[in-house]
Design a protein that fits this description.
Mean pLDDT: 89
Number of helices: 7
Largest sheet: none
Strand content: under 5%
Number of strands: 0
Oligomer: single chain
Distance between the termini: 31 Å
Shape: flat
Radius of gyration: 18 Å
Structural class: mainly alpha
Length: 184
């Protein structure tokens, strides 16, 4: 359960940007605005983390050891993919997103987001492939499909614009796709 909470933290941090925690209202709060923003960011992220963990452990997939892990990976992959396709508004203001103040990147997938996106895609692909282990070609095909989706999200210039992540995703997807064929 604790591992699920850690695994869900990146998705929760991105989803926390759906609420304007960075723009607190002026009031009688004893903290400074920055302290209030940081406290709200932590509170919102923790609450959303608990929501993702609850979803992962609430359905019928919880009976399989890979089920909650696959659900969290799918939620993370879906959230980051939709965000990137829509122009990355969450990635721009998320605690784990790109930082426009340092002018390193203003759109697309940064290094942290690539790590989260690729890890979620590979974990999901490994879980799906393990469910299809009795049919190695189907297992390898599912890995390739998920890997190609993540590679496109990361590498297409209008979306992720992260060419450096493309070779890493292609190689890691290829290695993972070969495992069912070699072990099958």
């Amino acid at each position: 359960m604790a591992g699920s909470a850690v695994m869900a933290a990146p998705a929760a941090a991105y989803a926390s940007s759906l609420l304007p925690w960075w723009a607190p209202t002026q009031g009688s709060w004893p903290m400074t605005n920055m302290g209030l923003s940081a406290a709200l960011a932590v509170i919102v992220t923790v609450l959303l983390d608990l929501v993702v963990v609850a979803i992962a452990w609430a359905g019928p997939w919880r009976r399989d050891a890979r089920g909650p892990m696959a659900i969290i990976a799918a939620i993370t992959l879906t959230l980051l993919s939709v965000d990137v396709v829509l122009g990355g508004p969450l990635g721009l203001i998320s605690p784990l997103g790109v930082n426009p103040i340092t002018a390193g990147r203003f759109y697309g997938v940064g290094n942290v987001a690539f790590g989260i996106l690729s890890a979620a895609a590979l974990i999901l692909a490994a879980c799906v492939a393990s469910w299809w282990r009795s049919r190695p070609r189907l297992a390898a095909g599912s890995v390739i499909l998920i890997g190609l989706l993540a590679t496109a999200i990361d590498g297409v210039p209008a979306w992720g614009a992260d060419f450096g992540g493309v070779p890493a995703m292609v190689v890691s997807t290829g290695v993972l796709a070969l495992l069912p064929l070699v072990n099958g």
